Amino acid sequence: MISIFLIGLVLVSGMLFYQLRLNENYNSLISSMKDLKSDVHETNLQLDRMMFGSELGEEHTAFQERYISMRQEMQSFFQRPLYQQFLEANSSIESDTTTLENMFLMND
Fold first, then answer.
1. Which of 33, 50, 43 has the alpha carbon at shortest distance from 65?
2. 79-103: per-residue pLDDT in tens?
3. Rounded to the nearest 10 degrees, what angle do helices 2-52 and 81-89 cross at?
4. Phi/psi zone of residue 12: left (φ > 0), alpha (ψ -120 to 50 degrees), beta?
C-alpha cells in the first residue's frame, strides 16, 4: 500500500514539475513579448525626438541604432521554439507575424 502511495506521489510530483517548467516557458515568452512591445515604444519615442529635436544628426543616428536593435530583438523573438510551436498551432499568428515583418521590410 505504501509503495502505491509513493508511486502516486512521484507521479504527481513529476506532473507538477512538468507544469511548472511549461508555465516558466510561457511566462518567459510573455516577458519577451512585453520587452519587444517596450522596444517598439522606445523606437517610436526616438523617432519623435528625431523629428522634433534640435540635433537632427545625433537624433537620426540614435534612431537608427534603436531601430536596428528593435529589429534584431523581433527576429530573435520570432525564432524562439515556443513561438514556433504557437505558429504551427494557429494560422492567424502566422499571418500576423508575416504582416508585421512585411511592414518593417517596407521601412528598411
1. 43
2. 888 888 888 887 787 777 787 777 7
3. 90
4. alpha
Please give the distance of CA 23 from its chain centroid, rounded to a whole number: 15
37 near 73, Cβ under 8 Å? no
Q: Which three cell numbers stand for residue 98?
A: 508575416
**Are the C-beta atoms of residues 25 and 82 closer than 8 Å to each other?**
yes
Which residues does 53 contact at the CB level (< 8 Å), separation at least 6? Answer: 59
Q: Is pTM, for the whole model, over 0.85?
A: no
Q: HSE, CB side, 13 Å, CA atoms: give it for residue 75.
A: 9
Can you tell me the distance from the alpha carbon of 73 to that of 77, in angstroms, rounded to the nearest whole number?
6
- The predicted structure's pLDDT at residue 16: 93
Q: Show the cell assigned to 70.
A: 528593435
Q: Which three cell numbers stand for residue 86?
A: 504557437
Distance CA 81, CA 10 (A): 29
